[in-house]
Prior knowledge:
The structure holds two protein chains of two kinds.
Chain A: H1 75-87, H2 109-115, H3 118-121, H4 133-150, E1 154-156, H5 162-179, E2 187-191, H6 197-204, E3 208-212, H7 222-228, E4 233-239, H8 251-260, E5 264-268, E6 288-290, E7 311-313, E8 325-328, E9 334-337, H9 360-396, E10 414-416, H10 427-436, E11 443-444, E12 454-456, H11 464-483, H12 502-507
Parallel strand pairs in A: 2-3, 2-4, 4-5, 5-6
Antiparallel strand pairs in A: 1-7, 6-7, 8-9, 10-12, 11-12
Helix pairs in contact in A: 2-9, 4-9, 5-6, 9-11, 10-11
Chain B: E1 2-5, E2 10-15, E3 18-23, H1 25-31, E4 34-38, E5 45-46, E6 51-57, E7 61-65, E8 70-75, H2 78-81, H3 85-88, E9 97-101, H4 113-121
Antiparallel strand pairs in B: 1-2, 2-3, 3-9, 4-6, 5-8, 6-7, 8-9
Amino acid sequence: MSINQSGWKPTAPAKGEGAAPTFTGNKALMLEEPLIFEIGSTKTTGVDFAEGDVAHDRLGDLTRKAPIGLPGLSEQETVRHYTRLSRQNYAIDLGLFPLGSCTMKHNPRLNEKMARLPGFADVHPLQPVDTVQGALEVINQLAFWLIDLTGMHGVAMSPKAGAHGELCGILCIKAALEKRGEGHRKVVLVPESAHGTNPATAAFAGFTVEDIPATPDGRVDLDALTARLGPDVAAVMITNPNTCGLFERDLKAISDAVHAAGGYVYCDGANFNAIVGRVRPGDLGVDAMHINLHKTFSTPHGGGGPGSGPVVLSEALSPFGPLPFTERHGDGYITLVEEETVEDRHPDSFGRMTAFHGQMGMFTRALTYILSHGADGLRQVAEDAVLNANYVLRSLEDVLDAPFAASGPCMHEAIFSDKGFADGFSTIDAAKALIDEGFHPMTMYFPLVVHGAMLVEPTETESKAALDQFIGALRSVAERAKAGDPSLKTAPHFAPRSRLDETLAARKPVLVWKEPAPVAEAAE
Amino acid sequence: MSRYFTEDHEWIDVDGDTGTVGISDYAQGQLGDIVFVEVPDEGRQLTKGDEAAVVESVKAASDVYSPVSGNVVEGNAALADDPSLVNSDPEGEGWFFRIQLSDPSELEELMDEAAYEAFVAKL
């Protein structure tokens, strides 16, 4: 026989052999990545420019006198650095993202395909309108859907995120009050369970914010709210479903009372995914509501893409909405109503919030999502989002304190508290341990009305198998927290970095990288 | 010298017409590790309830309200270098500012130590 003498002898691995630490600190595909400043050197560069032709610059005293000291990296070093870092990140494409109130759901690939069609992706907002009729049709159709789904009168498409949409709605209310000669109404009432952006928006627009307490079951206290209404109240900002994951059953009564007192109702529509296709906010007396396309209508966010926050408006507020907007004519041709073309048709507009039409790429994705689901599919989105949240709530209420479990079914998010954890253990410890379990943690310590709040929003896009795995992980973590397992206090243990010292980082932040002193090179 | 507390968790020690103001041990415990403190400048006129100082922890930035009206005599410069004094000795070395009271009768609306302890116990 002929024998291959390369030395390769296939054998089954021996049992019980442990791992020795590696020379590099890497663990196979888990790479220990240095800072970009520690790669390359100030003596190298990734690009090779020819010497400039300019003999004399005109910077005078402003000319740099010493090298800037930034390291140079080759293209390959740079690409590898960021690709390696990206592998240490967590994303919706890697697993369940239970952040409550953020609505991190799957971004369908069909959305991406449509947004990349050259007719949508390669247009410029300053192109003549007869060359972008398809793009304008997308904006116009999406506007129609948003009005229809909310039962409202008009929509401002240009706001670029949820909080931007809030500002748009509040500016509409301000303009409407001033038009009525009631600019003296300066108070905006905000329930204590509101999104933090609500009071910030009202204050930014020049209003005074006053809190409205919640009832013990987690909803707005209707009596306290109506008692506070009066000639100085401009508006109420209310989130529905609210941040306790509950439907505000009294919203119609609240709206009627606010309108009777001469105010307007702003609804934070960040949680619209829980009621889309089931409830039309217009029927509940809402005057303005932003819709997070990046939540309800599945466009990417959280680093994956820009937000988009169109605002639907009641008949009373529509005349005050911002420019520009699309207008469809009888023959199907769409024009853009802007300052130059508005003439006297929209004289009360408060102005313009953005340079152009809005987030075109998000419009295309959101319309794709809406059309691919259809009206019945969107209704099922809300039903499944609520079903999934209730499944999480009921699966964990025996091990975690669920303060509103007795208030009836939750909407799109389940809320737990840290009551019952061992002394010295809090929500942060459970959240860090979830990182070890391979999950992004849930929203922590919000809403403020719940001690050590854990706000979980599974969304409709997770399967029962995925939910069961998450529930199992959170159950295990909760049991360890109740038992006082000391290893929780230093979790995460398996992440690229373990528990960070946030106090030291805040007290003594290192903001400038300094090149370490050169190590003496061995003589040749 | 007597010590008074507010419902917003400030304390004030009064000696003659001068008061020393800080935040309570309960307040520092709720805030967690303090990482930054901004105290009022000498000479600043404060009305009772005014935002007098800012205290920042890893968790949140909070305003500290003046428990009385008056004229700031001194801010605690040591807190700029070592904000952790508010954690280690909130009702001593971790004081925020000294104020010359313009209306000592305002003290009557504040709580004494026992009343404050009872107030905190209910939170």
